[in-house]
Design goal:
The chain is of the alpha+beta class and about 450 residues long. Helices cover about 30% and strands about 25% of the residues. It is built from 13 helices and 23 strands. The strands form five sheets. Strands 1, 2, 5, 6, 7, 8, 10, 11, 12, 13 and 14 form an eleven-stranded mixed sheet that branches. A hairpin with a 4-residue loop joins β1 and β2. α4 crosses α8. The radius of gyration is 22 Å and the shape is globular.
Length: about 450
């Protein structure tokens, strides 16, 4: 494995399923998707059956905090070793260029490793690799429990680069006919198509030099119109923030015992260009389950005279009002909560983004026992379906523009958590590649 210290990457050894494995059954969606829709995961289980699958190597979060958690983790770790021992997973060295086509769009990326020594998820971080949203430390322990003792990692982590001139990934798109194809198949449950290509040494060198170009302090300062003394941000988290934070937490605990030359120092990720035409930022909505307090009374209590609510006749009108808000007040759609559809408006907010204002309220509301739990969901249809059930409430949010991400993080720090999503639920990354970490 080749280490490129100055840009914080490693050229990895990646494990892929051997020839003959049914890849449609092998690849499953990121474990943190469809957490309030168990029927999705029942369908996955039916499709996979007894076939080799990443379903047996990951822990869908729909099962968290339910009976059998410890046994599931033990089974995952045993199956990792079994797949390696039986040759189901086989190694190859080098970068992988990937294309994901879904909903008429194709996103391009590169599979590589990031150096966790160059990553800091804490507030105010100025590291080369940074979180783009607040990291909830309380969410790490169950993930740490799963990763600790695991022989392998399987990433659903998507990391962004800001490459408006398309120098890093897109040259591989142009030359992909000259690259060895590693896999090419349809994903399950209407989630599109995935293809991967081996990146040869010449193209690998091209990728490395292009990343170095983006990491040049002079280029960085000129791009964002900032001082030359500002630390460079090369890699910004897109999806999988808590998975990378988990890898970091374990590495910090391990390194006094194992030294700096250990596979756990690195994490396998896919990098994508924020300027990729196939990449869209989607808002992440909130759903409260099992309301125990009067939601409207609590909203008025927290926001006071700055709070107003307008009832509306339909979800369509609610979405239109929120998506076209003029910015003088922050607009948030409200579904359910004892009513049908409406728009909350907040004047003089404490956060620059509506998601920050409402998340601050929801954190307090939940802490004070206002609802049984919260979930973060994709798609206005999912918000409506879940929030209109008795005792629930949903909050619909507009999305942020992807071109705002890097400069916002550089100047203001991490965004409120769950501000944006890279695509809708079925566009999320599927587990395909694995890497040894012990």
């Amino acid at each position: 494995m080749k280490i490129i210290n100055d840009i914080g990457i490693q050229i990895p050894q990646v494990y892929l399923p051997k020839a003959g494995v049914d890849l449609n059954k092998w690849a499953i969606i990121a474990c943190d998707q469809f957490t309030s829709e168990p029927e999705y995961w029942h369908d996955v289980e039916k499709i996979v059956g007894d076939a080799p699958s990443t379903l047996n190597l990951t822990f869908p979060e729909v099962h968290l905090e339910k009976p059998g958690e410890e046994d599931r983790i033990k089974s995952i770790q045993l199956t990792m070793r079994k797949y390696m021992a039986e040759g189901i997973l086989q190694p190859r060295d080098g970068l992988i260029y990937v294309e994901r086509t879904v909903s008429g769009k194709t996103r391009k990326g590169i599979i590589l490793c990031l150096d966790l020594e160059r990553y800091d998820f804490n507030k105010g971080s100025s590291s080369l690799i940074r979180a783009t949203e607040g990291t909830i430390v309380d969410r790490l322990p169950p993930r740490i429990k799963i990763r600790q003792g695991a022989a392998m990692e399987l990433p659903h982590i998507l990391v962004l680069i800001d490459d408006p001139n398309h120098t890093v990934i897109e040259p591989l798109t142009t030359d992909k006919a000259r690259l060895e194809k590693l896999y090419d198949f349809d994903l399950m449950l209407e989630s599109g198509h995935l293809a991967g290509y081996a990146v040869n040494e010449a193209h690998e060198n091209q990728v490395v030099e292009a990343l170095r170009g983006l990491a040049s302090p002079e280029t960085f300062a000129a791009k964002y119109d900032i001082g030359a003394d500002q630390p460079v941000l090369l890699f910004a988290m897109g999806d999988g923030n808590h998975s990378l934070a988990t890898a970091k937490a374990i590495w910090e605990k391990m390194k006094p015992e194992v030294g700096m030359d250990h596979p756990s120092r690195y994490a396998l990720v896919e990098i994508e260009n924020v300027h990729d035409e196939g990449l869209e930022f989607e808002p992440i909505h909130r759903v409260l389950f099992g309301l125990k307090k009067d939601l409207f009374a609590e909203l008025e209590k927290i926001f006071g005279a700055n709070f107003s609510y307008t009832p509306l006749a339909s979800g369509t009108e609610m979405i239109r009002r929120v998506d076209n808000a003029d910015g003088s007040k922050q607009a948030i759609g409200l579904v359910g909560g004892g009513k049908q559809f409406g728009v909350i408006e907040i004047a003089n907010p404490s956060s620059n983004l509506a998601v920050g204002a409402i998340q601050s309220f929801l954190d307090t509301f939940l802490k004070d026992g206002g609802a049984e739990k919260i979930d973060y969901v994709h798609g206005e249809d999912v918000v409506e379906r879940l929030a209109l059930q008795n005792g629930n409430a949903g909050f619909y949010l507009a999305g942020m523009h992807k071109n705002e991400l890097f400069k916002t993080v550089i100047l203001d720090g991490a965004l409120p958590r769950k501000t944006f999503s890279m695509g809708a639920a079925r566009e999320k990354r599927f587990y395909m590649e694995a890497r040894k970490i012990s």
